[in-house]
């Protein structure tokens, strides 16, 4: 027996193309900004107030401003146009790229697989996440571990900046790590590690409690993914503007 | 308040068919299934439609309304503009029988492929006391009414007929998850999910969750947790090393 003969790719009458288009444009703009700032190699540290942008933290190579290298300079200066963030960005990018929410977002928006529900995809063949390279999405938990470590470093940076007083930059750095922490904790892998893999919740009350709390955050994973991503860029922009002298930091306590 | 609504309904069978235009009376408080029934009663007595409870609990009247997979009985006419032409078509993923009725036996085949609940052999009835927190996760999945809208929407089979053999679809991967999360189930369902039910084909684009009339979090609570369990078993080098070192099976 055959399927019903309906030639149209979709009969949806709503603006189904709007969410994938918005996602695509949003991710593209953020990627362009992040690439520009990564390769700019400057304006990442405000010496006066000890603000370090999260995009350059930790700054581990010899071309880093010494005061910005809170954890030392482990590596020699990178050659050519390469900059210090290139040592940490693979982990942060890996965490976002393998994230269950972002997978949905870019499979739909960038790969049209599918572009929207009940809208036919343009590909003639589909193997999902069964083969290389997409089978590597299963490594999400390792990127989660790496991102958690980098988050702790970002928290340390944000707290360290309070040593010079309190300004708007401190508040921004603090909100940034708050959003990053919420996004990282709401991760599906984190939820699984905390308690999701258990069969008997009743035998592990502490892990069950952790799982229920993470599940609440996990319900907002998409919102936290966007909020933390956008706010990282805004934080970086603020630090760059202050570091370059374009604006001065609004100080509350000096 | 009544008005004359414009409808386009797919009529035909496996030898061919197409959309036919109708104008049907719509009254306040009605759902799309009411209109289909009025259409049957007044203009197209041979129109085929599968329905039963008219309360969103039997899962019979699944179809596509303006291209969106929905239950005919749970789609209120009040969500549409009076001037709008409403298109009603059968589910695309399954073979057509006639008009709005499809052959959903693919799902029954897949259901039979999931091994049933396997409690420990030495457990006598009444010996085990189930705690509420242990069954809550699977209870969510038991809300499923088997309307198969998720199976119909999933692009893995909707857009790729050739995947039907390898992929059980969200409804039955959810069934596997339900059994896997059951404290007393002893069957090994993790490898099965990946190797026999095609979990790896799912790219978690969440359309199953979007269309579920019972609002089950299929992707977040069943498919992703199963993917994580598969990652534990098959793709986690540290777990693999731990198993080797401590001789865990």
UniProtKB/TrEMBL annotation, chain B:
Co-factor requirement: [2Fe-2S] cluster; [3Fe-4S] cluster; [4Fe-4S] cluster
Pathway: Carbohydrate metabolism; tricarboxylic acid cycle
PROSITE patterns: 2FE2S_FER_1 (PS00197), 2FE2S_FER_2 (PS51085)
Pfam families assigned to the protein according to its UniProt record, in alphabetical order: Fer2_3, Fer4_8
Record has Metal-binding as a keyword: yes
Record flagged with keyword Metal-binding: yes
2Fe-2S ferredoxin-type domain mapped to chain residues: 5-92
Sorted UniProt keywords: 2Fe-2S, 4Fe-4S, Iron, Iron-sulfur, Metal-binding, Oxidoreductase
InterPro entries: 2Fe-2S_ferredoxin-like_sf, 2Fe-2S_ferredoxin-type, 2Fe2S_fd_BS, 4Fe4S_Fe-S-bd, Beta-grasp_dom_sf, Helical_ferredxn, SDH/FRD_Iron-Sulfur, Succ_DH/fum_Rdtase_Fe-S
Entry superkingdom: Bacteria
PANTHER family recorded: SUCCINATE DEHYDROGENASE [UBIQUINONE] IRON-SULFUR SUBUNIT, MITOCHONDRIAL, SUCCINATE DEHYDROGENASE IRON-SULFUR PROTEIN
Family per similarity comment: Belongs to the succinate dehydrogenase/fumarate reductase iron-sulfur protein family.
Protein name per the record: Succinate dehydrogenase/fumarate reductase iron-sulfur subunit
